[in-house]
Amino acid sequence: MVKICCIGAGYVGGPTMAVIALKCPAVEVVVVDISVARINAWNSDQLPIYEPGLDDVGEEPLFSTDVEKHVFEADIIFVSVNTPTKTSGLGAGKAADLTYWESAARMIADVSKSDKIVVEKSTVPVKTAEAIEKILTHNSKGVNYQILSNPEFLAEGTAIQDLFNPDRVLIGGRETPEGQKAVQVLKAVYAQWVPEDRIITSNLWSAELTKLTANAFLADRISSVNSLTALCEATGADVTEVAYSVGMDSRISPKFLNASVGFGGSCFQKDILNLVYICECNGLPEVAEYWKHVIRINDNQKSRFVNRVVASMFNTVSGKKIAVLGFSFKKDTGDTRETPAIDVCKGLLADKASISIYDPQVTEDQIQRDLAMNKFDWDHPIHLQPTSPATVKQVSVTWDAYEATKGAHGICILTEWDEFKGLDYQKIYDNMQKPAFLFDGRNVVDTEKLRAIGFIVHSIGKPL
Ligand code: NAD
Ligand code: UGA
């Protein structure tokens, strides 16, 4: 029986291994993590992540903190640890911090007594496999290692359906007979449920660079459409109409063209910064600048949103209550990493607003921690974060949209949760200060209906 051990029980490791365990009954699947709290949560009724469909997958891998035992026993080791942006030293603010990856690799070399296939599941800079290979082979005690790159393309909120039905699975390996044999072993795992024509194989460096490129292209689409929102607002064009008509060109496609307050999430910014750094290191400053702009437009989109709120509310929100509906970086997840809500709330707090936040999946503790934390500090293992962060006093968190909006001067919708479409906006309006402002950062509300109630509605990229 083949044994798979995944190091890192996070948003990727947990769901991916649950699906492999379900689809490959002949494989023993174990997920290990150094975070005792995370493993305990996976083994409880309160899973550490909210992901639709995860509860129903059925087959559960074993979740364990006994990292060394399971790595020792495994034939295939997936490494799915976090690869955050470096916060200090060479490349700070851009380069990937591979500390967690390197310590996992050193531990693998330490405990292994039999040949292993080591799979890069984390998103890493191109050429990481070469560094990992060095660590493993220079510390090997006669053990043979094959490194594969198998980047993950799932999106949070749709992780289970993405894993069940991926557009493609990519496996990169060394172009040696041993490397190609390892590629076939991993391919056989995915072939249990993924049609063969969707399993792509390539060389290692292409696979590593594909992942960074795919995220850069996706984020680029959002920044492209977001860059036009101010122009739409100034001219009377409607960004939804523009994006719809542009997307009807099959070469462009209608997907991923929703204008927003800005993209968030743990990967787009981190991976583009990583790409920028790699370009700089390879003497390509123009290419680095090109991709940096995707992030600049995104930062500008968030500050533009804050400026619009303040400017529309008579140039001050000092002492005013602003209700924030939605804090996670997108709907159907409780994940707040790099959510645009953090920057928007910090911007409003800087103008001395008092903020009342409601999100169906994010706890008060998490929100307070996010608002107290410095940029880039978030993606370090949860056990290293303070358990009781300082509280930002002008922020309150409720478990009800009606409570959050009671007595508010304005509402900011920052996540596109479906439930925000069906709220009783007449009731909300009746309980607000007048004039009642609504800033829709996700273009989810029925603008005409809300204007008929009496709201002053500002949408993204739409005429007033
Ligand atoms: P995560 O922070 O949710 O999980 C990573 C886990 O690794 C943490 O629980 C941490 O405690 C553990 N860990 C760190 N070092 C360890 C070690 N040495 N030994 C054992 N465990 C260790 O991260 P994630 O969102 O699952 O992302 C993991 C990787 O996958 C990142 O490189 C990310 O860029 C990539 N990725 C993420 C997504 C996504 O949607 N979140 C999608 C595709 C790819
Ligand atoms: C993204 C990619 O979609 C995945 O393919 C990739 O595997 C993953 O990053 C990763 O490497 O981590 P994710 O960040 O989970 O997935 O979520 P997305 O659906 O891509 O959304 C990212 C952000 O863009 C969200 O804040 C979302 O609201 C925003 N977005 C998305 C828009 O503003 N407009 C859109 O049209 C689409």
UniProtKB/TrEMBL annotation:
InterPro entries recorded: 6-PGluconate_DH-like_C_sf, NAD(P)-bd_dom_sf, UDP-Glc/GDP-Man, UDP-Glc/GDP-Man_DH_C, UDP-Glc/GDP-Man_DH_C_sf, UDP-Glc/GDP-Man_DH_dimer, UDP-Glc/GDP-Man_DH_N, UDPglc_DH_euk
What keywords are annotated for this sequence in UniProt? NAD, Oxidoreductase
The record's annotation in Gene3D superfamilies points to:
Cytochrome c1, transmembrane anchor, C-terminal, NAD(P)-binding Rossmann-like Domain
Q: Where is the UDP-glucose/GDP-mannose dehydrogenase C-terminal domain?
A: 323-447
- Which pathway does this polypeptide act in? Nucleotide-sugar biosynthesis; UDP-alpha-D-glucuronate biosynthesis; UDP-alpha-D-glucuronate from UDP-alpha-D-glucose: step 1/1
Q: Which residues form a coiled coil?
A: none
Q: Which reaction does it catalyse?
A: UDP-alpha-D-glucose + 2 NAD(+) + H2O = UDP-alpha-D-glucuronate + 2 NADH + 3 H(+)
**Per its UniProt entry, which superkingdom is the organism in?**
Eukaryota
State the function annotated in the UniProt record: Involved in the biosynthesis of UDP-glucuronic acid (UDP-GlcA), providing nucleotide sugars for cell-wall polymers.
The name this protein goes by in its record:
UDP-glucose 6-dehydrogenase
Which classification does the entry list for the species? Eukaryota, Viridiplantae, Streptophyta, Embryophyta, Tracheophyta
